[in-house]
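Our consortium's second objective concerns turning raw sequence data into structural hypotheses that experimental partners can test. To show how far this objective has progressed, the report includes one record in full. It was chosen at random from the queue rather than selected for favorable results. The single chain below, 483 residues long, was entered without modification.
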Amino acid sequence: MQSIKYLTQVVLVLFMLSCSSPNDTRNLDTNEYATKISDWIDLNIALITYERISPPKASRVLAYSSVALYQGLYNGLDGYESLSNQLNELDLSEEYDASKNYNWYVVGITSQKEMLNYLYKDTSPASLQQIEELYTLQLQSEENISRSSIIERSVEYGETLGKELVLWAQTDGYAETRNKEYLFEPQYSQWIPTANISSASLSLNPVLNIVTKYDSTGKNSVSKDAGLYSDRMLTTNRPQQITNERVAMEPFWGELRTFALDSLSSFDPVKPFEYSENKSSDFYKEALVVYNSTKDLTDWEKETAHFWADNPGQTGTPPGHWFSIMSQLIDQKELKLSKALEMYVLTNISMADAFISCWREKYESMVIRPETYIQRVIDENWRNIIVTPPFPEYTSGHSVCSGAAAEILTFVLGDNVSFTDRTHEHQYGFKARTYSSFYEAADEAAISRLYGGIHYPMAIYNGLDQGKAIGQNIATNLTLKTK
């Protein structure tokens, strides 16, 4: 009788163990899982580069991608809150069975995959394949930890969540601006398109683009080098025809729904100086600063202009550059998942709203580019070393984006945090740069546009202030952790 009772107890214990896995309640808040996120960061940068996505579009891709990942993962982290009813017009059903176990990392990457398939739906099959390959690789890793029933449940909920987030993304006004014709009457004192076939070709040729590739073991097929901006990359040429967007890039971007800002007008920069050719005018003096600053550039100033240029098709664009910095910070600071996720979602939301705010101002103020003004008024033979982008001058997109990013990164990781940026060390041979704070890097990114002859000082410094104000607002008003 005792042996039967003992056997019954053993069977009961085995049954209980078969119904749940202790690993399903394991701690996700580790550097190992933060590093898994960095794989997605690197892939996003690679695809933005490969598909030649413009800076505003890149900021949108990164923001929605980060929201989808965060929204799937936050339940697996202690004390973190949903972004539902915090982001504009986001009201999620949150339908999952709270009585059952989930692998929240699987939920997160599945939700993100659904979003990425939407965001990259008009891109090449190769890009969509890379998303699927990384997802499969990470899913297989989790399948070795969790029971199959938990994985299936997590995938199902992640797909449901991702699809709901895609429906939200589809209502931000992006689709409505795709076929909207941009008509304007060029004014002598306002911005006129500077891009043409020759200048556009100059900015795009030659370009080596990056595509992530893994071998059958799940390891990258490029030799490991911790110093590379990404050690998971192969390069391939992907030429692209010149399109009308190179004449006026995203003229309606300022009409998109913001992610977190309540009112764009609250973040309008100070008004730019009025156009004037009078040598005593503020506008002329702004142009003269650009002219004098670019006449005898030092080697360091030239390299700074190119280090932060981040043209579409050459790098991940300015938001992608800061995204790359985030990936490097995960390794350099050995960040845990929670801190990496905070950095990831808040910075990307801030940069996305920064671009909407910046582009709204650009097409309202219509400030003429230095290239046009200097050649017209000061020196017809003057040339800038960075190709002038195809949109109005004020404010500087690099400045607004960098100001917002620096504000959030300082909020999440602290002030006076030193770090090394190796973003372009491998592909373009630029030496790694070390900064004593995120503000120092943002200031350098902003002033690089003066060295490149792209922006006036007013666009640079007022743009930094504009971006910092946006970052401060989002850091203050978005609640990620309440415990």
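The partners drew two points from this record. The chain has a mean pLDDT of 86. The first helix runs from residue 2 to 19. Both points have been shared with the crystallography group to help prioritize constructs.
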